[in-house]
């Protein structure tokens, strides 16, 4: 049994009261690790450690912080396989993604963050008049609380912590209790790399440790990647101290296929590149609404069905596996409940719908859901409006560009969208008019570090970048 501990003030410690939580391997249903079930005392200790470390860390020259960030990148590179295997075991994200995509990508991201430290200390000057000079300077907030989800812990840990540290903040990371082993292991590896208290990691339930952290007066900035409901709860909980918030929340992303598109590329884009492989649709930007022009409906459904039939569900540690399990029993029950909801609402089951041992007989206790597609012309159905967060998509026909745009925007979410067309004018119109933080044209799920990533409407606001972790101060100097 693997035992993991919190990182607080440079020390690896159990929860103050000794409580633990079981971590379940979603492919087998078996407990494989124990993690701290932290509480208020642990939250207090983490904030105290981060506040104590802040003056020295923020006063460090920017290039000094860059040196530490490059050291962290080296840890990611040196321990890539170990970290990838831990994450795959913990949340079911397939090894071919955690090892070949996530770890190399995050190693690069820490290097990028090291290269952006100077952006966090740059200011502007304004000549206000004879003998009067205006200037601005950027300053870190102080203690940044980074709350990360279970679907990609290493990636979201990096996207938040790297930029927050680069800007001169000290950091507390609260990982999701369903899958936090990889982040806790990172804490072990980084304990001797970063100065004590600069990075702190505490695991536990949201109501036990997350809520005290969010409400703590000593926390100066909060960044969350999670559900819209969690974002709403954090907004209410943090209101007493008016903390600046960055939220990357849920999505119900449309993937729109026009008749002039490369249909083979589009079929790949709306299936394996969007919702059916890797993390079993447990992705905030998953293209869970597939809008298809009626003139190519049959051709696209045939292509999508053929691709989905080749998805290989098996042990996620097997490099030949292309889709893993649902992360937990609770999430499995949520996803499977929508299969019943869709049927009751009258959506047509095109393929899929199998669950549990019917999907992977060799691992009968795992949380398996087969790639599933429903079809309907009614975008008001719950399966079209609510985030399922699993390998379940809905195909919706349309006839005109205006109809496609209206259906796409008919959602409380606005995180991402895909457009498949060879018409450059149409592409520009949809980039402009889609109510979405990101629009991909003839591609999907590309999120390079050089571009912002965030949403609109119930999908959140702001994005994780160096300047998001700074505040701007103005000064006027009269001589």
Task: Describe it.
The protein folds into two domains: 268 residues, Aldehyde Dehydrogenase, Chain A, domain 1; 196 residues, Aldehyde Dehydrogenase, Chain A, domain 2, CATH 3.40.309.10. The protein contains 14 helices and 23 strands. The strands form six sheets. The chain has a seven-stranded mixed sheet, with helices on both faces. Strands 10-9-8-11-12-22 form a six-stranded mixed sheet, with helices on both faces. A three-stranded mixed sheet has the order 1-5-4, with helices on one face. Strand 13, helix 9 and strand 14 form a beta-alpha-beta unit.
Short descriptors:
479 residues, 6-stranded mixed sheet, globular, 23 strands, alpha/beta, 7-stranded mixed sheet, Aldehyde Dehydrogenase, Chain A, domain 1, Aldehyde Dehydrogenase, Chain A, domain 2, 2 domains
């Amino acid at each position: 049994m693997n035992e993991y501990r919190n990182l607080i003030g440079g020390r690896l410690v159990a929860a103050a009261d000794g409580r633990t939580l079981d971590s379940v391997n979603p492919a087998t249903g078996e407990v494989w690790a124990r993690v701290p079930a932290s509480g208020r005392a642990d939250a207090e200790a983490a904030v105290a450690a981060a506040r104590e470390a802040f003056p020295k860390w923020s006063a460090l020259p920017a290039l000094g912080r860059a040196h530490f960030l490059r050291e962290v990148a080296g840890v990611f590179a040196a321990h890539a396989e170990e970290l990838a295997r831990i994450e795959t075991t913990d949340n079911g994200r397939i090894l071919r993604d955690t090892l070949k995509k996530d770890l190399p990508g995050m190693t690069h991201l820490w290097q990028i963050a090291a290269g952006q430290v100077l952006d966090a200390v740059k200011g502007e000057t304004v000549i206000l008049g004879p003998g009067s000079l205006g200037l601005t300077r950027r300053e870190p907030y102080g203690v940044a609380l980074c709350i990360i989800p279970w679907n990609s812990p290493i990636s979201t840990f990096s996207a938040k912590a790297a930029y927050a540290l680069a800007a001169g903040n000290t950091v507390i990371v609260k990982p999701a209790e369903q899958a936090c082993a990889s982040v806790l292991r990172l804490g072990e590896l980084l304990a001797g790399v970063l100065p004590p208290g600069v990075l702190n990691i505490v695991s536990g339930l949201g109501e036990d440790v997350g809520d005290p952290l969010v409400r703590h007066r000593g926390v100066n900035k909060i960044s969350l990647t999670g559900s819209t409901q969690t974002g709403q709860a954090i907004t209410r909980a943090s209101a007493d101290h008016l903390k600046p918030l960055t939220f990357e929340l849920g999505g119900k992303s449309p993937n729109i296929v026009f008749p002039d598109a490369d249909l083979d590329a589009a079929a790949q884009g709306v299936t394996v590149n969007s919702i059916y492989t890797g993390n079993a649709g447990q992705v905030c930007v998953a293209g869970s609404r597939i809008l298809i022009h009626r003139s190519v409906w049959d051709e696209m459904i045939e292509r999508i069905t053929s691709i989905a039939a080749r998805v290989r569900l098996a042990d996620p540690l097997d490099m030949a596996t292309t889709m893993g399990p649902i992360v937990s029993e609770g999430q499995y029950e949520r996803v499977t409940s929508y299969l019943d909801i869709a049927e009751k609402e009258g959506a047509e089951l095109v393929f899929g719908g199998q669950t549990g041992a019917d999907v992977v007989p060799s691992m009968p206790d795992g949380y398996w859901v087969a790639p599933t597609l429903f079809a309907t012309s009614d975008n008001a159905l719950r399966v079209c409006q609510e985030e399922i967060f699993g390998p379940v998509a809905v195909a919706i026909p349309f006839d005109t560009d205006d109809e496609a745009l209206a259906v796409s925007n008919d959602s409380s979410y606005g995180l991402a969208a895909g457009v498949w067309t060879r018409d450059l004018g149409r592409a520009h119109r949809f980039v402009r008019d889609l109510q979405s933080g990101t629009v991909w044209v003839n591609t999907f799920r590309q999120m390079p570090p050089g571009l912002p990533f965030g949403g609109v409407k119930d999908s959140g606001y702001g994005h994780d970048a160096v300047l998001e972790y700074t505040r701007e101060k103005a000064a006027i100097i009269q001589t």
